[in-house]
Amino acid sequence: MKKVILSLFVVGSLMATSCKKAKEAKEEVTEATEKVVEKTEEAAKTVVEKTEEAVKTIQSAIEGVSIPEFADAKVGEHLKAYSEYAKEYIDAGKDAYKNAGLVKKGADLVAKGKEIVGGLDEEAAKKFNSVLTAIQAKMAPAK
User: Fold this and answer.
1) Do the Cβ atoms of 92 and 142 come closer than 8 Å?
2) What is the number of structural domains in the chain?
3) Maximum separation of any 2 CA atoms in the chain, in Å
């Protein structure tokens, strides 16, 4: 009988010890899960912010050139029109100078661009010029 009672105490103590370890393991798992959820939420916010920045650009007719959003919508429209002109220019290739309509359109866009830059603040003018330079860089190989 002593052996049976002693065995029950040993089994009971083992079960009590294993239950404590299970509770500790459960708490560790809960903490790890909370950390993973926090990191996932941070990553999701970052993705949303990057996506919102990308949406704020106007689609350019030239591949690899994006037109950022300006306070004045006319600036973005002008850059889009210039990128469309550049696309036509690139498509025309060496015959671009023979096409009088294309040459006139280019001259008109350059003149209008000078007017637009005159009305911009310093930072917007830098943005405008960087986009214009990127478009013209794509046009250079067509010459």
Assistant:
1) yes
2) 2
3) 114
Same domain, 51 and 62: no
pLDDT tens-digit map of 50-62: 655 544 556 666 6
Domain ranges, residue 21: 1-55
pLDDT (tens digit per residue) in 84-127: 888 888 887 767 666 778 878 888 888 898 888 888 888 888 88
Q: Quote the pTM value.
A: 0.55
Nearest to 90 by CA among 131, 61, 57: 61
Residue 98 is which amino acid?
K
How far apart are alpha carbons 45 and 33 in whole angstroms?
18
CB 113 within 8 A of CB 71: no
